[in-house]
């Protein structure tokens, strides 16, 4: 606007200036909104890129929480916190080198318990003569080497012959030797065969259709339908043993619990593609017990039913479904430090959360160093060290999280790490109060891993009965392993004795930690 276009009237001029002023304000407002929108979009792009990077790492990177060598400088920052244990970067570098550099392993000795079949290789008689003076050579020693041989599973038919007797004088004196008790009467399945099928599927991950093919190769026709029926029937016969294990587990005062998904194709009221759940309870310590339970739901009512009568410590992850049972049973809830650490590790691996992840990992490294140091100590000694060393670190970490929390975007990877620790803090510090308690819930997570591996092979359960049978066999196998038993041998003996169990004492003798 030129000077000639300005109005001469003062009031009109003021009016024009005010109009222009409001236009400028409106433009500034629009620019501010656009700038805010651009910032939001930029943050969303960063967040999405972080999520893509995170998923790529989960799918393709080695599954380790070890921090790489170019990240090791972060561990010197622990020195910023006076009075807290330090973690030496050089020590971390050596740890990292050891973790990444494949160690040259010596060939493992073949197990001593395996039978040896000797193959003697000797010189011909004509060669047992000295080439220099013709003297007879004398044996002075041996060169021994060993190779591992294998014979495929031995399959044979056990033919039971029962003699019949009759009186030569009358028709009333006929007798036949009694039918021996059998796990599955009127079937071809011996206890060893059933144990073999169970171990092959639930420990070795071989679905029944693959076992059907393997048996067919040696000329034995076993349909997957028959094998499935046998497993379901045997699982039902094992319920008294399962109930005894459950009673023992619920009598403990410290349990770990977790859950994972399972797909069941034929389930009333649910689509074949919907998720159901396998819940796992774990009692460590003397006579450890692992119990799997199938449920179509992940609702809080499930742990209420599974933990009926239990009192004490319950260690779980951050899933809200455990809140109800802890409140109802007045349980002391413990959190999982591994989950909290993992979220800061995820943040560290993203551009937007690197600084948050970097600082958080410093604290966690110090906490886990303490756990390594006290691993062999008594419960009382562990508690003392944790109170003196771990507690100050956790308190310092909490202060930092409290300060950082208002400054982070809640949905960002770094914000999720901060908020997870903030929300779980009352449960994460619980392990400080008793030296028997673990810093994490990794014990039960390790018991779930065999199921997750098996699930990749057999993919789903056809029916609810099949899922329940799976829960039974995973329970027995994992409990046997936890008690240092060879699963096949123990399960075979169990199934051989099962038909003879009539009383509660009989079933107690079948427990994996029974002295009989």
Could you characterize the architecture of this molecule?
The chain is α/β, with parallel strands linked by helices and 516 residues long. It has a domain at 337-439. The chain contains 16 helices and nine strands. The strands form three sheets. The protein has a five-stranded mixed β-sheet, with helices on both faces. The longest helix is centred in the first third of the chain and has 51 residues, at 10-60. The protein starts with 9 loop residues before the first helix and ends in an 8-residue tail after the last helix. The model is unreliable at 68-83 and 87-94 (pLDDT under 50).
Give the key terms.
516 residues; two-stranded antiparallel sheet; five-stranded mixed β-sheet; single chain; 9 strands; alpha/beta
List the helices and strands and how they pair.
Layout: H1 10-60, H2 89-100, E1 164-165, E2 175-176, H3 191-202, H4 208-217, H5 224-237, H6 239-250, E3 254-262, E4 264-266, E5 276-283, E6 289-295, H7 301-306, E7 313-315, H8 323-328, E8 332-334, H9 337-348, H10 354-373, H11 379-404, H12 413-428, H13 442-458, E9 461-463, H14 464-482, H15 487-497, H16 504-508
Parallel strand pairs: 3-7, 4-9, 7-8
Antiparallel strand pairs: 1-2, 3-5, 5-6
So what's the oligomer here? single chain
| Structural class by secondary-structure content | alpha/beta
- The count of strands amounts to 9
Radius of gyration: 34 Å
Strand order of the largest sheet: 6-5-3-7-8
Query: Overall 3D geometry?
Result: elongated
Concise structural overview:
With 516 residues, this protein is α/β, with parallel strands linked by helices.
């Amino acid at each position: 606007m030129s000077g000639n276009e300005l109005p001469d009237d003062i009031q009109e001029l003021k009016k024009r200036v005010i109009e222009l002023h409001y236009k400028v304000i409106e433009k500034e407002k629009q620019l501010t909104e656009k700038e805010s929108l651009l910032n939001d979009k930029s943050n969303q792009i960063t967040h999405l890129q972080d999520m893509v990077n995170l998923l790529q790492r989960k799918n393709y990177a080695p599954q380790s929480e070890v921090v790489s060598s170019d990240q090791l400088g972060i561990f010197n920052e622990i020195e910023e916190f006076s009075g807290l244990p330090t973690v030496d970067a050089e020590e971390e570098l050596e740890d990292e080198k050891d973790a990444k550099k494949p160690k040259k392993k010596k060939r493992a000795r073949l197990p001593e318990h395996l039978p040896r079949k000797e193959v003697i290789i000797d010189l011909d008689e004509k060669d047992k003569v000295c080439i220099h003076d013709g003297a007879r050579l004398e044996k002075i020693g041996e060169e021994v080497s060993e190779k591992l041989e294998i014979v495929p599973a031995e399959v044979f038919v056990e033919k039971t012959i029962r003699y019949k007797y009759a009186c030569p004088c009358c028709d009333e004196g006929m007798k036949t030797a009694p039918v021996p008790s059998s796990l599955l009467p009127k079937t071809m399945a011996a206890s060893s065969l059933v144990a073999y099928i169970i171990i092959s599927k639930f420990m070795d991950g071989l679905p029944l259709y693959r076992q059907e093919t393997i048996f067919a190769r040696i000329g034995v026709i076993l349909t997957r339908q028959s094998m499935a029926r046998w497993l379901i029937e045997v699982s039902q016969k094992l319920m008294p043993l399962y109930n005894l294990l459950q009673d023992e587990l619920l009598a403990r005062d410290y349990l770990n619990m977790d859950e994972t998904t399972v797909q069941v194709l034929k389930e009333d009221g649910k689509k074949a593609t919907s998720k159901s759940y396998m819940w796992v309870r774990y009692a460590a310590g003397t006579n450890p017990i692992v119990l799997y339970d199938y449920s179509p739901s992940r609702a809080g009512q499930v742990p209420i039913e599974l933990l009926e009568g239990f009192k004490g410590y319950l260690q779980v992850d951050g899933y809200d479904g455990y809140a109800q049972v802890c409140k109802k049973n007045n349980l002391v809830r413990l959190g999982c430090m591994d989950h909290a650490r993992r979220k800061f590790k995820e943040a560290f691996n993203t551009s937007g959360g690197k600084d948050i992840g970097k600082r958080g990992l410093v604290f966690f490294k110090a906490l886990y160093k303490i756990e390594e140091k006290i691993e062999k100590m008594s419960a009382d000694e562990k508690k003392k060290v944790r109170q003196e060393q771990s507690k100050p670190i956790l308190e310092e970490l909490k202060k930092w999280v409290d300060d950082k929390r208002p400054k982070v975007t809640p949905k960002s990877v770094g914000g999720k790490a901060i908020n997870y620790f903030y929300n779980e803090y009352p449960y994460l510090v619980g392990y400080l109060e008793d030296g028997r308690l673990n810093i994490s819930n990794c014990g039960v997570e390790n018991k779930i891993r065999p199921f997750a591996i098996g699930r990749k092979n057999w993919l789903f359960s056809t029916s609810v009965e099949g899922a329940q049978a799976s829960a039974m066999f995973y329970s027995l196998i994992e409990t046997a392993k936890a008690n240092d038993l060879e699963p096949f041998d123990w399960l075979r003996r169990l199934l051989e004795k099962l038909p003879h169990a009539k009383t509660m004492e009989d079933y107690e003798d079948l427990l994996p930690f029974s002295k009989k």
